[in-house]
Amino acid sequence: MASFEDTDFFMDLSLVDDPYPYFDYLRSRGPVTRLPEHNVVAVTGFEEALAVHLDTEHFSAVNSVTGPLPPIPFVPEGDDITAQIEAHRPQMPFGEEVLTLDPPRHTPLRSLMMKLFTPSRLKEMESYLTLLADQLIDEFEARGACELVRDYSRPYATLAIADLLGVPEEDRNAFRVNAGGAPSQVGAGAAEVVNPMEFRHQKFLHYVEDRRASPRGDILSTLANATFPDGSMPDAMDVVRVATLLFGAGQDTTATLLGNCLKIIAEKPDLQAQLRAEPAGISAFIEEVLRFNGPVKSTFRLARKPTSLGGEDIPVGTTVMITTGAVNRDPRKFDEPAQFRIGRPGAKDHLAFGRGTHTCPGAPLARTETRISIERMLARLGEIAIDPERHGPEGDRRFSYLPTYVFRSLAELHLRFTG
Ligand code: HEM
């Protein structure tokens, strides 16, 4: 096994295209191991990762998105840094988003968000998701080729969240272009060139104020007028934050899952034939992709009280990296974890969507979006293959991933279709 003793996971771009040998190295050092840099312990054991997800007393989610970079903007003092964390949230990136808040502040905002994710709402969305898949496929089918990320995955994920939130039809293309997708006839309307966060804040503030002044019985009205569990009305900006977070959290992750699924389908003709013959197996296939090569490589917590984990002392101020990409290949949990095996026992037990307080509310939507996309692509397109001119010939493929230590996202995926 390669040694990565001096490797800095957070800076070393050579780990981006294939992090798995490094994850194997971390695991060989034990389920919880201290890294040489940035005051981080890495968790690769399944049981230990689950314990961190479920323990909000010792671990804060304040750094869940960014991990150790930038470092926390204060020097930890004493045996409980909760008050210091709360005081410094405004200086920390994403420090006041639902994803990073801890109970009790997290609880009412999460409940506001969950009002959107009812099973009946998701069921209602299915016909739109199918229509959307077909409309996007229409745009490239005749070409016999596509660049999946730009032509399909990103616009699909963006427009799906726009539908979840009830963004009016005439504004959807603007959301699509703003999120980096190609403009199209799907969701007509002019696009403004503004930074995506600012664009979504402006739009949602307008929607919320408008629906508060005159409710219309649409989803935006439900969201704008939803109350906290104690009956009080949230600030308009709280609602805006929830809506814009959903765009941020649900777009790249789902687009990434679609890319990781299609790459495997395009590389394995036998598997592709099997899924065409039995579309009912697509959900089990997606579950194995989530485990084997899920969109999120790592998520983080900050130790706010001293504790220990897997035999390692964890002093306050330590960043705990839940190394999801490694955890989902823990051989104590999954037999022969480096094998891609659809329908393995306990296939859904992976931590690709986290667990506990911050468990992904978008998981059912992401699974549905991905299943419908694969169903429609297999139904509409001839044999799907990797474009050898862009990624090299079989046996010598080259794929680039986005340079981040959090996501496992293909930068581009060029596909060709035959027949
Ligand atoms: C395959 C796609 C997706 C993956 C792999 C994924 C993964 C995750 C993970 C691992 C977490 C927990 C992070 C932590 O504990 O630190 C999370 C939280 C979250 N996800 Fe997802 N997600 C996906 C899709 C979505 C979608 C489609 C949406 C929205 C429509 C969404 C919205 C959120 C939100 C709002 C949170 C924060 C919840 C909270 O803090 O209470 N995600 N996601």
Task: Report what the structure shows.
With 419 residues, the chain is α+β, with helices and mostly antiparallel strands. The protein has one domain: Cytochrome p450 (Orthogonal Bundle), CATH 1.10.630. The protein is built from 15 helices and ten strands. The chain has a five-stranded mixed β-sheet. The longest helix is centred in the middle third of the chain and has 32 residues, at 236-267. The radius of gyration is 22 Å and the shape is globular. The model is unreliable at 182-193 (pLDDT under 50). It binds protoporphyrin IX containing FE (HEM). Protoporphyrin IX containing FE is lined by residues 61, 64, 98-99, 110, 161, 164, 245-246, 249-250, 253-254, 257, 294-296, 299, 352-354, 358, 360-362, 365-366.
Which helices and strands appear, and what pairs or packs with what?
Elements: H1 20-28, E1 32-34, E2 40-43, H2 46-54, E3 59-60, H3 82-88, H4 106-114, H5 119-141, E4 145-147, H6 148-165, H7 172-178, H8 196-213, H9 219-225, H10 236-267, H11 269-277, H12 282-293, E5 299-303, E6 307-309, E7 312-314, E8 319-322, H13 324-327, H14 363-380, E9 384-386, H15 388-391, E10 414-417
Parallel strand pairs: 2-8
Antiparallel strand pairs: 1-2, 3-5, 4-10, 5-8, 6-7, 9-10
Helix pairs in contact: 5-6, 5-14, 6-7, 6-10, 8-9, 8-10, 10-14, 12-14
The structure holds protoporphyrin IX containing FE (HEM).
How far the N terminus sits from the C terminus, by CA atoms, comes to 43 Å
CATH superfamily: Cytochrome P450
**What's the arrangement of strands in the largest beta sheet?**
1-2-8-5-3
Q: Could you tell me the strand content as a percent range?
A: 5-15%
Q: What is the 3D shape?
A: globular
| Number of β-strand runs | 10
Structural class: alpha+beta
